[in-house]
Amino acid sequence: MSQQHRSRPLGSSVALSEAYDTALLDLDGVVYAGGHAIVHAVESLGTARAGGMHLAYVTNNALRTPDAVAEHLTELGVPAEPADVITSAQAVARLMADQLPSGARVLVVGGEGLRVALRERGLVPVESADDDPVAVAQGFGGPDLAWGRFAEAAYAISRGAEWFASNTDLTIPGARGIAPGNGAAVEVVRIATGAEPQVAGKPLPPMHRETVLRTGAERPLVVGDRLDTDIEGAFNGGVDSLLVLTGVTDAAQLIAAGPEHRPTYVDRDLRGLLTGQPEVSEEDGRFRCGGWTAEVRADALVLDGEGDGIDGLRALCAAAWTHAGDGSCALDADKAVTGLAL
Ligand SMILES: [Mg+2]
Predict the structure, then answer these.
(1) 229-248 burial, b if ≥16 CB within 10 A, otherwise e?
(2) What are the start-end ranges of the E strands in 268-308?
(3) If DSSP codes are grouped into helix, strand and coil, which group holds residue 101?
(4) pLDDT for residue 1 is more than 60
(5) 234 pLDDT above the threshold of 70
(6) 247: CA distance to ligand 1 center in Å?
(7) Contacting residues for 183 by C-beta, under 8 A, at least 6 apart
(8) Is the dihedral of CA 263, 268, 272, 273 positive or negative?
């Protein structure tokens, strides 16, 4: 564990797939983007699995059931069983079952994934505030969720029902652009009620707990593309993480990350599971990785050298994170990042 070590990306002398027993993989931006697999994902995951690493898929999206997600993964060439998929619907269902009596009625604002998860925990999904629910469960409902569902939630909450949300991602990326996510839907209900939901999804502990309970992981490695969900969730759970650059995070955002958003390792894509990770060394405020040297000079991050750009990014992260300490690095990094050709 490396929770105290947030001032630079760590090195590893062995492949990460050997150093950790289980990969807890985010899906969107890591394994797939919409309907197609991310570059190098299929073969990298196949090799990691063949080498004995357990692969689990962890998603904040509560819409689909684990069966449906596993089927989609298998179609893409990543064979997965429903038991390998952990959703925020499962996490919020457990959170609710821990607080509500067995058989309690729960008003569902969301999709099939949420209903199945609630039933699995002995709770009874209902559709109307007039069914006397003791709680409201809100998860992403997809494009067909009717506006009237938010009204039902508001009625139930105003009558005293406890409010739970699977996750609060404000947006959800799709093939045609960025759409409002469950967090935006939660805001609709919040504005109408003034209430505050209990939330389960990444980066909060209920999701990480659900993942560890279901996988039995002893040395898990969280693999994700988002700093404020995947990486922060790993930080909150006290486990190591690998950030891949195939999703929403770019080099500049990573360099500027505060401590809870700094991953243990950084790589381009899922091929990073199959290799060791180079050390970043320091001498007199100069950080070296591969053929690159990064340092702070006149309020800017400066990068010299040549070679694999991802090593240059590791060196820049070390220089920026060390300089920023417990804060976020506000130094100008534009010129240094341009030289990376990532
Ligand atoms: Mg993602």
Answers:
(1) bbbbbbbebebbbbbbbbbb
(2) 281-283, 286-289, 292-297, 300-305
(3) coil
(4) no
(5) yes
(6) 6
(7) 167, 168, 169, 170, 171
(8) positive
State which H helix or E strand residue 19 sits in.
helix 16-19
Residues with Cβ–ion distance below 5 A, ligand 1: 26, 28-29, 225-226, 247
Give the chain's radius of gyration (CA, Å): 21
Q: pTM higher than 0.90, yes or no?
A: yes
* Of residues 72, 68, 44, 61, the one with CA closest to residue 223: 44
| Residue range 271-328, pLDDT digits in tens | 999 999 999 999 999 999 999 999 999 889 999 999 999 999 999 999 999 999 999 9
Residue 206 CA to ligand 1 center (angstroms) comes to: 18
Q: Is 26 a catalytic residue?
A: yes
Q: Give me the catalytic one of 26, 84, 267, 311.
A: 26
Would you call 35 exposed, middle or buried from its count of C-beta atoms within 10 A (0-12, 13-18, 19+)? exposed
**60 CA distance to ligand 1 centroid (A)?**
9
Nearest to 267 by CA among 302, 309, 316, 220: 309
Pairing type for strands 124-126 and 105-109 reads parallel
Rounded to the nearest angstrom, the distance between the alpha carbon of 62 and the centre of ligand 1 is 14
